[in-house]
Write a structure and sequence with these properties.
mainly beta; 8 strands; globular; about 130 residues; 1 helix; four-stranded antiparallel β-sheet; Jelly Rolls; single chain
Length: about 130
C-alpha cells in the first residue's frame, strides 16, 4: 500500500501538487517575534492571506534564538500537543537555530503554535509551501 498524505491519493500525487511560494529565496518572514504570544499555551496565527482555501498542509521555515538553551516553539493545526506537530528549539544560548517542517493546518487556515519562553530574542517564520 502506498503512503498517503491526503486520503485517497498517493504521496507522489501529493508531491506533484505542492505549491512553493516565490518568497522562498528571500529573507522576508511572514510572522516576526512581535506577532507571537509566548506564554506556553496554544495560540493561533491566521494564514488565510498566505495560503489558498482548501490548503491542508504547509511547509514552515523558522528561526529561533534566545538567551537560554531549550526554548521551544511548536506548531500544529489543532492546538493539541500530540498530533502533527513540528518544533524548533534553541540548543545553546544566543545561537540561532533554523528548521523546516510540514504542519497540518486547520480547515479555516489557522496555524496553531505554542512558545514556551516569554522573551525570545528571535522567533520568525515564513510559509514556504503548501499542499
Amino acid at each position: 500500500m502506498a503512503d498517503t498524505l491526503i486520503a485517497g491519493t498517493t504521496l507522489v500525487e501529493n508531491i506533484k501538487k505542492v505549491e512553493v511560494k516565490s518568497t522562498i529565496e528571500s529573507n522576508t518572514f511572514d510572522f516576526l517575534t512581535v506577532d507571537f504570544t509566548t506564554d506556553g499555551t496554544f495560540k493561533s496565527l491566521d494564514i488565510s492571506n498566505i495560503v489558498p482555501e482548501g490548503t491542508e498542509w504547509v511547509i514552515i521555515e523558522g528561526i529561533v534564538k534566545d538567551d537560554v538553551a531549550n526554548s521551544k516553539v511548536e506548531f500544529n493545526g489543532t492546538g493539541i500537543a500530540t498530533v502533527n506537530k513540528f518544533a524548533i528549539e534553541t540548543q545553546v544560548a544566543n545561537v540561532t537555530n533554523r528548521g523546516n517542517g510540514w504542519v497540518k493546518i486547520s480547515s479555516n487556515r489557522l496555524l496553531y503554535y505554542k512558545a514556551d519562553n516569554l522573551t525570545f530574542t528571535d522567533l520568525n517564520i515564513k510559509i514556504i509551501g503548501y499542499l
